[in-house]
Design a protein that fits this description.
The structure holds two protein chains of two kinds. By secondary structure, chain A is an all-beta fold. Chain A contains no helices and ten strands. Chain A starts with a strand and ends with a strand. In chain B, β8 and β9 form a beta hairpin. The chains are: A mainly beta, B mainly beta.
Chain lengths: ~110, ~110
């Protein structure tokens, strides 16, 4: 099955700084790359996704970059705000039924 | 519109009892997923339903776990003879199709004493 690794496991930044979380996967058949944000006590929510025919996608302060050759994709958050504090998960998808989520990155934005 | 709902929100049971968890997906979503999330951990895939196809049960940890879905609507996850290690939050998600955004419910927190 897919082996998914996320780094770092925890990340603390000052408000206004940038944050980068990297997701490495093993299955070269992966062709859909979403990032989910989970706030305390809630279910995960999609914040951005990318498909394998593009290398980068941006939505306001959030961006995702994809390197299919190296089999990794990254989440970039600029001008971080306290409400960005949450756990972030990647979930590379091959189109097969079973999904493997990364182990999560806990982001703490210090005001 | 209404999102994914799950019930109960919390369930406390005694070891050895059976429990049934319910998920109401977003109307029209053909795909439905169940996940388990232990405290401070990531999401562990359990089972996936897609339309009328046979469900993918490859993530179910033991034969004590089973799930059903009625057409493209409600799903129930049943855990028989619960064990303490079953304590976790059980999350349900639905999506309009494969490889698209999954919409998660708030989860059911199961505690087995």
């Amino acid at each position: 099955g897919e082996n998914v690794e996320q780094h770092p496991s925890t990340l603390s930044v000052q408000e206004g700084d940038s944050a980068v979380i990297k997701c490495t996967y093993s299955d070269s058949a992966s062709n859909y790359f979403p990032w989910y944000k989970q706030e305390l006590g809630k279910g995960p929510q999609l914040i951005i996704d990318i498909r394998s025919n593009v290398g980068e996608k941006k939505d306001q302060r959030i961006a995702v970059t994809l390197n299919k050759t190296a089999k990794h994709f990254s989440l970039h958050i600029t001008e971080t705000q306290p409400e960005d504090s949450a756990v972030y998960f990647c979930a590379p998808d091959t189109g097969r039924r079973a999904l493997t989520f990364g182990s999560g990155t806990r982001l703490q934005v210090q005001p | 519109g209404a999102g994914v709902s799950q019930s109960p929100s919390n369930k406390v049971t005694e070891k050895g009892k059976d429990v049934e968890l319910r998920c109401d997906p977003i109307s029209g979503h053909t795909a439905l997923y169940w996940y388990r999330q232990r405290l401070g951990q990531g999401l562990e895939f359990l089972i996936y339903f897609q339309g009328n196809s046979a469900p993918d049960k490859s993530g179910l940890p033991s034969d004590r776990f089973s799930a059903e879905r009625t057409g493209e609507s409600v799903s129930t996850l049943t855990i028989q003879r619960t064990q303490q290690e079953d304590s976790a939050v059980y999350l349900c998600a639905s999506s309009p199709q494969a490889q698209s955004e999954q919409f998660f419910g708030p989860g059911t927190r199961l505690t087995v004493l």
